[in-house]
Amino acid sequence: MSSDDDTQTAIDDALVPRLRVIEDQPLPSRAEAYAQVHDELRQLLEGGDVPRTHG
After folding, report:
1. For the stretch 7-20, what's the b/e string if a residue is b when 16 or more beta carbons lie within 10 angstroms of its beta carbon?
2. How many Cα atoms sit within 13 Å of 9 on the Cβ side?
3. Would you state the pLDDT for residue 55?
4. What is the CB-side half-sphere exposure of residue 53 using CA atoms within 13 A?
5. What is the mean pLDDT of each run of 10 residues along the chain (55 residues)?
């Protein structure tokens, strides 16, 4: 298993329980928590972008 696979497994293992906790919260808190998860995942995905050079 590669390092990327290990990282993905760790993220998956942490995300599912976190989402279950969020689902048990009242709606206003749930919305805020989902927004935070969204922002964290976006940063994680965008952080993997490598700028391309033309030439």
Report:
1. eeeeeeeeeeeeee
2. 6
3. 52
4. 1
5. 69 86 94 94 79 60
